Amino acid sequence: MTTASLPAAAAATTPERRRRGSQGPVNSSPPVTRRAQTRLGLILVAPVIVMTVVFFVFPLANALYYSVVDFDGIDPNPQFVGLANFQEMFLDPEVWHALGNNLIWIIIGTAAPLVIGLLVSVLLWTTRAGTSPYRVIFFLPYVLPGVAIGIVWGWIYDPVSGWLNQALTVVGLGDLARGWLGDPNLALYAVLATAVWASTGFVIVILLSALRNVDIELVDAARIDGANPAQRLWYVILPQIMPVFLMVLTLTLVGGFSVFDIIFIMTGGGPAGATNTIGTYAYSQAFELSRIGYGTTLALLITVLSVPVAVFLNRLQRRLSLDGSGA
Amino acid sequence: MRKRLVLGTAAIIALTLSACTGGAPQGDTDPDSIRFLIGQPEDTADLDLVKEDLEAFEEETGISVKLDVVPSENMRTVLQTQLRSGEGPDVFGYDTGPGFAGALEKAGLLYDLTDAYAENDWPIYDFAQERVTFGGKLVGIPNEIESVGLFYNKTLFADLGIEQPQTIDDLTAAAETIRDNDVIPFAVSDKEGWQGGHLLSMVLSSEIGGDAIEELIAGDAAWDSPEVVDALSVLADYNADEFFTPSATAVTYDNANALFYSGKAAINPTGSWLAQDIERNVDFEVGYMPFPASGSPGIFSGGLGSGLFISKSTAKADAAVQFLDWNLTEEHGKWQVEKQQSIPAFPVDTTDIEASPLFTQILADAAKIADGTGDFGYNVDVLMSDTFNEAMWDGVQALLTGQKKPDQVAADLEKNY
């Protein structure tokens, strides 16, 4: 039976009506109180509005402006070029190459830390004691500055004196020794491996926290019913931590769209653009070739691609949380 | 009440905005104090020398200098931002090329020094003055003359029975001998990319000569000509023959220098600016030669290093010009040669200067560049546009990683000229 088919009197008592009715006392409050509440409300939201304007609306408007001018970083009166920067972006083969690298980064850079992080966190969760040192060790890379990680891994990968090649040589795998960051077919994956190493610790710690809220009785019941470890993980544990899992997924996924620092430090987008992503390509155009307008247009592309994904995952996470299906 | 609320909200917004922007500029108004911005030198000892020099200037003139140092790779971004904000340094060190100082002059951000040149009779070489002349105005003073060539381990060469190569065939034979003795022949690095431009400059300059490379730079000859392809082929062949550092595109400039310092590499293809660092770090004898050509010893690629410029918006032009004038005195020139081992862009009597044999040789070669008595090539990247340089740097990286062939790289150069 639908609300529309209810008699008028009954319809008046639907939840919708009751919610509206609940505003009655507020409306009937004295004007002074209403003004005070309005004032308080404005004061409370003002900081958020100001911050949104300063840190989001203004930079976005600024970026939109620079995307339609030919700005070299110096000229105070850049020429208006309309949509020429956008047109160039779609016709620029390096953009598509960089987007391909972003895609590789998003897929591997998201999947690897999540899978490894989930498995390690479940392992630590099921271990009764002595896990604290491991948690510290796993989390440590995440708190290290990205620049330091990039520099140190650059040394590790060095073709002549790096210990990776030296270790391979010592164990008899000298044929595998190579210039990891100088080989256009390998460099992106070498940087990616570093990024996975650096971000997995974060995933482990967050998922480990979520696992503490998992209902053990459900896991035990599944075990008694004959579910194997993989089935218990997939059907019992994972659904309970899904909102947190989605939150981590969102963070790593969106990071894949805007990845810049570790690639910039380790390869600078080279050799010959082989490891360029949209982030490093935008930087190169804006600050190395002084094409701020085109670089800004490329940066807007990152926003346009990543925001819908982030919003979708955020909504999914919220829905799961409201459904009570997660930790 | 509503009015107070609106005012209060406006105040919060204003405060927040001012907190974000740092508020109104609060410039230093002391006319006897200037701010000097430079890129981080390669070696901290060089920075100490700069500080020592500034102290001497302060003592001599009573003008204090506040030194700001930023990482060299950030210099362009930092400088452009500061100059555009009107809060730039009074004096700054910057590259002299058209893509650097030329771009700043075009935007009207540099102080016109034409009158200062005339009033102070600054004795800078004519060719050097041309490099800091944009739009008919002299906008800076060149700091130093630089050359690009091959530093080589003389001791190792002697141990292996190798004479200084006089032709490219000699060099190839020497590299084979060195490689066969388990030493890396050339400490080539190209991770940063700009080193590729220096490699091409030195091979090309030697092979075609100064006039021909000048034609290429001026656009009177094509960059996809057979001569350019041949020069690129030399790099590709040397790389294929394992004369270069393994995976040179994964090796940083500092690491390649370390290979040379440690004796693991025999030849370091770089510029005269590294002479002092080399002498500080090696315990063997070092020689310096041009990249040999097909039938001759070749020529050095020369050019200007950075220069000193004054911000157009400075309120302390007199003090800033006085600082530049100090840098162009005979005494300062001698100090520069002796202490910094760099070559001033104006004549300096070096007869009573104590310098190492290596730097004495560099000085003599540079003198030929300065007075025009010797043929010299050009370090291409300081004279070309950013777009061309990007194509050249990416092109050499692509060459060394097998992504492109010499003729493809040459075609890219011509396309991006």
TrEMBL record, chain A:
The keyword Chaperone is assigned to this record: no
Keywords recorded for this protein, A-Z: Cell membrane, Membrane, Transmembrane, Transmembrane helix, Transport
Region of interest called Disordered, as start-end residue ranges on this chain: 1-33
Pfam families linked to this entry: BPD_transp_1
SUPFAM superfamilies: MetI-like
Segments forming domain ABC transmembrane type-1: 99-313
Subcellular location: Cell membrane
Domain of life the protein comes from: Bacteria
A Gene Ontology BP annotation from the UniProt entry: transmembrane transport
Bias (Low complexity): 1-14
Entry-linked CDD domains: TM_PBP2
Membrane-spanning segments: 40-61, 103-125, 137-156, 186-211, 232-265, 292-313
Membrane topology: Multi-pass membrane protein
Keyword flag Transmembrane helix: yes
GO cellular component: plasma membrane
Primary subcellular site in the record, as a coarse category: membrane
Similarity section: Belongs to the binding-protein-dependent transport system permease family.
PANTHER family in the record: ABC TRANSPORTER PERMEASE PROTEIN (PTHR30193), INNER MEMBRANE ABC TRANSPORTER PERMEASE PROTEIN YCJO (PTHR30193:SF37)
Protein name: Sugar ABC transporter permease
Organism: Labedella endophytica
From TrEMBL, chain B:
Name by which UniProt lists this protein: Extracellular solute-binding protein
Keyword Cytoplasm listed: no
Swiss-Prot/TrEMBL keywords: Signal
PROSITE patterns on file: PROKAR_LIPOPROTEIN
Domain of life the protein comes from: Bacteria
InterPro entries noted in UniProt: Bact_solute-bd_prot1, SBP
PANTHER family assigned to the protein according to its UniProt record, in alphabetical order: ARABINOSE-BINDING PROTEIN-RELATED, DIACETYLCHITOBIOSE BINDING PROTEIN DASA
Signal peptide (residue range): 1-19
Keyword Manganese: no
Organism listed in the record: Labedella endophytica
